[in-house]
Fold this protein.
Amino acid sequence: MPASPLLDEAGKETPLQHSWYTGLARIELWTLKPGQTAILSGIDLGIAGNDASAKEFSHPIAALIVPEPGKYRLRYELHFGHVQRQDKDGKQLIPRDEDFAGSLTTGLAPISVRERVKEDDPPTFTGRIEFRGPDGKPPREGSCEVFAQSGWKELAKGALKGAAIEIPQCPFDSLIVNVRAPGFEETQFYDVRALPDSVTPLNLTPAQPLRFRLVTRDGKPVVGAEVRRFNRSKAAASAGPYPMKGLKGDVWGVSDTNGDVLLDTLQKFDPRDNALGEQHLLFYIEPVGHAPLFIGPVEAGENLGEIKVGPFLEASGEIRGTREELAAFAAEWEQPQPMKRGNGETEWEFAQSAKLETQRDGDKLTFHLSDLRPGKLRIVSRFKNGGKPVSHVYSRREPNEDDVVFEIDLQDSRDDLVVKNK
């Protein structure tokens, strides 16, 4: 593992922290014959002019320094033999008896640090990209985002208006382009190269629309419900990553005056991992004046028919236990949503846990929850002080053996719930 001492003009030496990685180290065994040379490459050293620019490196670095202008010298120390590997019987495989063990020190490499000038910035130009359908015509509306592929720096963001998109200060490097346009699959293009004085075309694939109709329990259309993208997985993959935007994902559709929803930008297959099968998507729907709900996993091209939207529900009840248990009582409540794999099995559950507020009425401890959606309601309680620390997985309470879990499928408002120690 390399160490990197830095020396200034006065000879003062500053040891630099080395990079740290998880997982197994890459190990190669080399045997050098007389006259042969081994070249060991290392990860780059980062040199920044101030703390702000130190956070803007677009590629991986090891040690980072923010030095004053001046002349410095740098050397690397390489240590061999510290990493060891054994087989299943405990026999040492690495290092072998004949392997070199010890340290090698490089010579001093001169580094000159000065104030940055404009000429140090990499050259840029105004790039232009254009989206086209199979007929060669651009979509009339939509939105796109353009990033530098190295470091994901945003370069451009805006609406499509049937013309080329301009990218100011575009680098001579690879770009990532995200696009959503009605009638075409939403797509993320990698390794896009824009060129000066030309337009880079990007071809879009026509989408297979997903349709459904939102109605109340008595069959009336639900108008103006916002359909938010929640999560994405694939038929032969896991249930999808944790949705970092939670319940505040981008709005991909709104129900019309008949309650109909048309989602016509869904991607059927991800071209980067086609072998995992069709895309599975989960949406979170927020109707006006009605309880929110999830739909999915769904696929592009489906017609789901009518989906009933329920009213906001309320749940209230009593906490029962001894005087000591009620004095120590604390709980969180949540409405978990199952995250399913392509085979229909639930892999994990999304939930945003909140503190259960209670009211004391003499010797009774009661609670009341409102604005709930139909579905599972879970209360995770603790009737004693101490025990294992309370833990969460992202925003969801993770019960342990010191917790008591109460769970009910709530389809109508209830005022008779009882939570007790067992």
Notes: The chain has a mean pLDDT of 89. The radius of gyration is 30 Å.
